[in-house]
Write a structure and sequence with these properties.
The complex is a heterodimer of chains A (906) and B (117).
Chain A lengths: L2 H6 L1 H26 L3 H12 L2 H12 L3 H18 L1 H30 L10 E7 L10 H11 L3 E5 L3 E6 L7 E8 L3 H5 L3 E4 L15 E4 L1 H8 L9 E4 L2 E9 L14 E4 L13 E2 L14 E2 L2 E5 L2 H23 L5 H8 L2 E6 L6 H38 L1 H9 L4 H43 L10 H27 L3 H6 L18 H32 L10 E7 L10 H13 L4 E7 L10 E3 L2 E2 L11 E7 L3 H5 L3 E4 L13 E5 H7 L9 E3 L5 E7 L14 E5 L9 E6 L3 H15 L4 E7 H8 L1 H35 L1 H9 L4 H35 L10 H27 L3 H6 L2
Parallel strand pairs in A: 4-9, 6-8, 18-23, 20-22
Antiparallel strand pairs in A: 1-12, 1-13, 2-12, 3-4, 3-7, 5-8, 6-9, 7-8, 10-11, 14-24, 14-25, 15-24, 16-18, 17-21, 19-22, 20-23, 21-22
Chain B lengths: L14 H13 L3 E2 H11 L8 H14 L2 E7 L5 E7 L1 H29 L1
Antiparallel strand pairs in B: 1-3, 2-3
The chains are: A alpha+beta (906), B alpha+beta (117).
Chain lengths: 906, 117
């Protein structure tokens, strides 16, 4: 017999003890018989000599001891037995807790992945990105020569340059299909800076980035290698084609490293020197640079981000060295600037280091406050669930008052009883935690995938339930369990034994015997707290829903219902600049010939596509910019038929026509926002503007239209004709006579017929694109409404449960009242009034918080003023009506009490 | 029942003393409960009669401490009984207890004799 059998094989130990005692008695009896005693006497004598077997067993059992584990197991079995008798309470408790814990786990998984997780590199805290700190917003990119000088100034710290992710055509085999993959261009120091090694082969080094267009080598990501090459080592030396250029694979990056961008994992890394070969033409700003010539040697094209790795002690030194270099260069440029204010602003620019251990994330940049708000909301839901469970447990403890009193008087320790009740709570919460984890696991990926897809067009961010999330869930579960279990347990055992045992079975009062229907102060407080929190959540739901409603009813300024939007990529299809004049008209003619198409147009930037292009340094004749002001337009290059195709309205002047060609004066159409900003009071038609000289004439004004977001105000914008500018169009807009979806299938072959090698990325109706632009807001509104509804349901369950229990408890009292002449109506209204009083108390508590919360939210919401009275009223009304329904049923049941039956139940 | 005290013997023996006696009996070989009780009685010349009420708890306590180990065997009469045997640790404990007992009894004897003198 060892500790193991003492814990788990009690039955066997008891049997053995019985056997031992039996054998002892048998031996003693036989000995007596051998001594000469008669058989019957000997048996009795033996037993007398032995003593009381029961006491011996007790003493022996006490030696074995009651281990904590055995106690816990016993408590658990007891709890399960109780539940079998009354499964309703346990079921509701587990359900509400599971929903609360599940929602918290899901939300925390998202927060963990977006806000807390670092890149899988050694000491991510030492990784930084170099940013420019300037009084006016400046593009945060650098030219390659600038990078080189900063890198040399900062040595020996590791400094690297990287581009943004570009989707390029990648062909992985001789006969394989071309697919789109995420490619990033990096300098040779990149892998050394982030300290990521190779899984197979080698990673890029400085030797791979010396000669312009001279390093057709590539490093694959681990996931890409596994997917496309089956993880075979023979991939080294293999060639892949990126945008038509052959690259040799020299290595695979270490497992787990997905690049520097959270939502778009990198598939292939190539040296920066190959920029013009693969035609990387995105995310850049050019100050009189030649964007169609290689960018690497040009100082005027800013397109790279600079990464830096430095130990904390060397950080200040490295930064100072880099700033000294920047200042030296700026001083040289500042000489040529005449305006003293502009000069001082230029010289005031400094470099700062931005912690980059978490990489770049659009979700994080745009949604951090929203995520934290949702996290807060979901925590409130959990508190409501806990309050619910606490109330249920309190109510049930009342019913067990007698049993507890008896046990206490028989000598059970109070702490022992509390432990038992607490074990039951922890069992509840454990089951709920497991259910909640499952729930979270099932739902979170679906939700996040939708948000990420609307942001980036890909759904690659996978939220996994990692150990941190697990620990979080367990912590939440334990804290909740103690929270709602401890107080009722302590209260339940604080029983006045004397009065409890003396009174009759049914006539038990509340714990304190106070007057009023809800005799327990704790129950009152809990209900009020629940109602207050529910008010907050319902208010949040109302606000977010209104936000969504407002957003989706914004007039974008163009016709969404009959336009099909086609994303094309002429650059990556091998089209050259001189082919442009033929490309445009031929494509448009082919598409116009398709049945169901009424008109078609080309544009550099599509609508609701995330594309944005702007220029600054524009001089407008007759407009004097204030010192330090930057004249910046957003711009789009469109074909002549663009405005009627997308349904933008011309409010003054004329549209582009055949007369606007290469050899005719340059023209532009502007929007009302631009007119308001720069031509206040003047008629813009006929006015001129331009970069060096005002050579572009304004010929028309269109009504304001949103480009990418309904949320942001419309920026000043200028439209230029494609016929006059050598710009590649990336979007084809098609106006259809019937529903756009039906024409889509005919448009694709038409395009293929005109230009078989033209890459077509997506064909979607414009309405769908606009809708998905609001997708994050929609999901947030959905989630917030879900939480609000959940809170409402939980609060009502709580109110219903507590009222029912109170009614059951006071059945005899009600019976007496009715026997004495009270009418059912009085009883009903009395109970209802008491319940409503609690609800009103809760509303009063919650009101100031709701107002404060809506003020805090207002900054992030669109079109919703703070503390909107109507939203508040709506929320309060919703809460009160549903809560009174919840209390109505038990109250009605109370009024139907048959006094005779009730009194007899004594 | 709130009392935690051990079951009292008719002859009041310190708990440790009873343990020591049991261990001593087992030096001569493993024995079952009845046999141990008989051995103590006969070995002490019928002076010490162990209450079974304290014997079995003591045996189980000794086993929990690791000084004896138990095993179900057949007796001479082909009856299955639980035999207790001494372990090495038990042997060591017995020696220690014997030393302590000798010290104690010498000290008490010295005190009593002085008192007589």
């Amino acid at each position: 017999m060892n500790w193991f059998s003492r814990l788990f094989c009690r039955a066997r130990l008891n049997r053995e003890l019985e056997e031992e005692i039996r054998v002892h008695l048998a031996m003693d009896t036989r000995a007596r018989v051998e001594r000469g005693e008669p058989a019957a006497v000997s048996r009795i004598g033996a037993r007398r000599d032995f003593g009381n077997p029961l006491l011996i067993k007790e003493a022996t059992r006490r030696v074995w001891g009651f281990s904590t584990l055995e106690v816990v197991v016993r408590d658990l079995r007891f709890a399960l037995r109780q539940w079998k008798r009354g499964p309703g309470v346990a079921f509701i408790a587990i359900l509400s807790l599971a929903l609360g814990i599940g929602a918290n786990t899901a939300m925390f998984s998202v927060v963990n992945a977006v806000l807390l997780r670092s890149l899988p590199v050694p000491t991510p805290g030492e990784l930084y990105r170099v940013r420019i700190d300037s009084r006016i917003p400046v593009p945060q990119r650098y030219s390659y020569p600038q990078f080189q000088s900063l890198r040399d100034a900062a040595s020996p710290a590791a400094v690297a340059a990287m581009s943004q992710i570009a989707r390029m055509n990648v062909t992985t085999g001789a006969n394989a299909q071309a697919e789109r993959a995420n490619v990033q261009l990096v300098s040779g120091e990149f892998f050394r800076t982030v300290e990521v090694g190779e899984e197979v082969g080698r990673v890029l080094t400085e030797a791979d980035n010396r000669v312009l267009d001279g390093h057709p080598v590539a490093v694959l990501s681990h996931a890409f290698w596994r997917d496309r090459f089956g993880g075979s080592d023979g991939v080294i030396g293999h060639t892949i084609a990126i945008n038509g250029i052959r690259f040799t694979i020299v290595g695979v990056a270490a497992q787990g490293f997905k690049g520097m961008f959270l939502e778009t994992p990198t598939d292939v890394w190539i040296p920066m020197m190959m920029q013009s070969d693969v035609r990387y033409h995105e995310h850049f700003s050019s100050a009189n640079g030649a964007s169609d010539r290689p960018w690497v040697p040009q100082d005027q094209v800013a397109w790279v981000d600079i990464l830096l790795r430095t130990a904390p002690q060397a950080e200040a030194q490295t930064l100072a060295a880099m700033n000294a270099e920047v200042h030296r260069r700026l001083a040289a440029t500042a000489e040529s600037i005449g305006d003293p204010q502009q000069r001082s602003m230029l010289l005031a620019r400094r470099l700062v280091l931005q912690p980059f251990g978490q990489g770049q994330s659009r979700l994080r940049d745009r949604f951090t406050p929203l995520l934290l708000t949702l996290m807060g909301m979901v925590a409130l839901v959990l508190i409501i669930a806990c309050a619910n469970t606490a109330n249920l447990l309190l109510a049930r403890a009342t019913a067990r008052q007698r049993e507890i009193a008896v046990r206490l008087s028989l000598g059970a320790g109070r702490r022992r009883l509390i432990q038992q009740l607490l074990t039951e709570s922890l069992l509840l919460v454990s089951i709920a935690a497991v259910a909640g984890l499952l729930l979270a696991h099932l739902t979170v990926n679906a939700i996040v995938a939708t948000i990420v897809e609307s942001l980036t067009g890909q759904s690659a961010l996978l939220i996994s339930l990692d150990s941190r999330v697990l620990v979080f869930t367990i912590a939440v579960a334990v804290v909740s369990g103690v929270l709602f279990g401890l107080a009722p347990a302590i209260r339940a055992t604080r029983v006045d034994l004397d009065s409890m045992l003396k009174t009759a079975a049914r006539a038990v009062q509340g714990f304190s015997g106070r007057r009023g229907f809800f005799a327990w102060a704790p129950a009152k407080v809990l209900i009020s707290v629940q109602v207050a929190l529910s008010l907050l959540l319902v208010m949040g739901a109302v606000l977010f829903s209104r936000n969504l409603y407002n957003l989706s009813h914004v007039n974008w300024g163009f016709d969404q219902s009959r336009v099909l939007s086609v994303s094309i990529d002429p650059v990556n299809s091998g089209l050259t600049v001189d082919q442009l004049p033929v490309f445009g008209p031929r494509l448009l003619d082919q598409v116009r010939a398709v049945r169901g198409v009424s008109s078609a147009a080309l544009a550099e930037c599509g609508l609701a596509d995330g594309c944005q292009s702007s220029s600054n340094g524009i001089h407008i004749s007759g407009y004097q910019p204030s010192p330090g002001e930057e004249v910046r337009f957003q711009e789009n290059f469109v074909s002549a038929s663009y405005l009627p195709t997308v349904g933008m309205t011309l409010v003054a002047g004329r549209n582009f026509d055949r007369g606007d060609r290469r050899d005719t004066p340059r023209v532009a159409i502007v929007n009302q926002a631009l007119v308001r900003r720069y031509f206040a009071g003047r008629d813009p038609i006929g006015q001129r503007f331009g970069y060096e000289t005002p050579d572009t004439q304004i010929i028309g004004v269109i009504a304001d239209a949103h480009l990418n977001s309904a949320r942001e105000p419309v920026a000043p914008m200028a439209y230029y004709p494609l016929e006059q500018n050598a710009v590649f169009p990336f979007s084809l807009e098609v106006r259809t006579t019937s529903a756009p979806e039906q024409v889509a299938s005919a448009v694709r072959p038409a395009i293929a017929e005109a230009f078989p090698r033209l890459v077509v990325e997506r064909i979607t109706p414009l309405a769908v694109r606009v809708e998905s632009a609001a997708s994050p807001d929609r999901i947030v509104a959905l989630l917030a409404s879900g939480f609000g509804a959940l809170a409402l349901v939980l609060a009502c369950i709580g109110l219903y449960g507590v009222t029912s229990y109170a009614v059951v408890r006071r059945t005899s009292e009600i019976g007496v009242r009715m026997a004495l002449g009270a009418r059912p109506g009085t009883i009903l209204s009395g109970i209802l009034c008491e319940s409503l009083l609690l609800v009103c108390a809760g509303l009063a508590i919650g009101l100031p918080f709701a107002i404060w919360a809506s003020k805090a939210l207002a900054s992030g919401l669109f079109g919703v003023g703070p503390a909107q009275l109507s939203s508040l009223t709506l929320a309060a009304f919703l809460l009160t009506s549903i809560a009174s329904l919840a209390a109505l049923f038990p109250a009605w049941r109370a009024s139907r009490v048959n006094p005779v039956v009730a009194l007899r139940q004594q | 029942m709130k009392s935690d005290g051990p079951y009292k013997n008719r002859i009041e023996l310190l708990q440790g003393t009873l343990d020591m006696l049991i261990l001593q009996v087992l030096v001569w070989g493993s024995q079952h409960g009845y046999g141990i009780a008989q051995a103590i009685r006969s070995g002490s010349g019928e002076v010490l009669q162990i209450e079974t009420g304290s014997l079995y708890p003591a045996l189980h306590r000794l086993e929990k401490q690791g000084w004896v180990k138990s095993e179900w065997k057949q007796t001479d009469n082909n009856q299955r009984a639980k035999f207790y045997g001494l372990t090495a640790a038990g042997r060591k404990h017995l020696t220690a207890e014997q030393t302590r007992w000798n010290q104690m009894s010498a000290a008490i004897a010295g005190l009593m004799n002085r008192g007589e003198a």
